[in-house]
Amino acid sequence: MTCSRRAALLGLSAGAFAPMLARAAPVLPDAPPRMRVIVDNDLAGDPDGLFQLAHALRSPSADVRLIVGSHLHSPQDAEPDDGHQADKAAAKARELLALMGLAGRVPVVRGAEGALGRADRRNSAEAVAAIVAEGMRSDVQTPLFYTAGAGLTDLAAALQAEPRLAQRMTLVWIGGAEHDGVALPPPGGTPGEYNFTIDPAAAQFVFGQSAIPIWQVPRNAYRQMLVSLAELRVLAQSGPVGAWLVAQLDHMRGQLTRLGRNLGEVYALGDSPLVTLTALQAAFEPDPASSRYHLAPTPRLGEDGAYLPRPDGRPMRVYDWIDTRLTFADMFAKLAH
Per the domain annotation, does 258 fall within a domain? Predict the structure, then answer.
């Protein structure tokens, strides 16, 4: 509907309607959050987790209650395994919170320094206590989403410590390989999907031995989350948060370029569906209405991440297609200052 048509319906001239539009600044809603969110990510590695965290923090529908900085798994990662990956991830989260004027507003904890059960690494005690405390709250009614963009070490440890958590939250996980009959592995793809291989035992426990509802975004879906470097250059010029985020990405790209990798002119912000599927749910009948999924019995996972059929498994959402337009238009708008 044009401005003139709106004006006519209101009994106003088009000239009278224009000043009203000029005075109306776009605002985010003041309504209470629709959900609580725990963010768990390897924030010292691929910067896509930092973009996701900043986007979540700027999304009023999602009340970010806790940030867990989690570990990577390999000396070949952008940040080597020096026994302090989770510490560095937590430090990155605090740096971003300070830049966004949110220092001290959201609790940040470091997760385990290494995979589930590794005796040579610090355990998840601090993260487990914080996850259990938020998950077992009885004073709030908003649903709780555990949004994980890396391994599942700290969630698995929390579920082992307090199995009742499985009835009180939903896991949204960026991870896992393609499902048979849905998509093929990417050409030249690694044998095991990256986030699964961070901690296979943790993923096997969460899928096969816990009862937590799972919304999975497997590799074929998160690889869709492409943005161009030209778009990111515009974001870098829009304000200090965008500039900082793009600088983190440039640093990592520089490291990979020195190792002989040619990444081209696009980048996958693969963790961004964690915001799409939570904060950006539909206004009516709240749900991620613009992204597509199929339901499947939750399988067990093999040592290599293969799906082992379990017909009696609890229903699981497997997202096949993510609304990239909504995701990135919203992210760029929210981070443009």
Answer: no
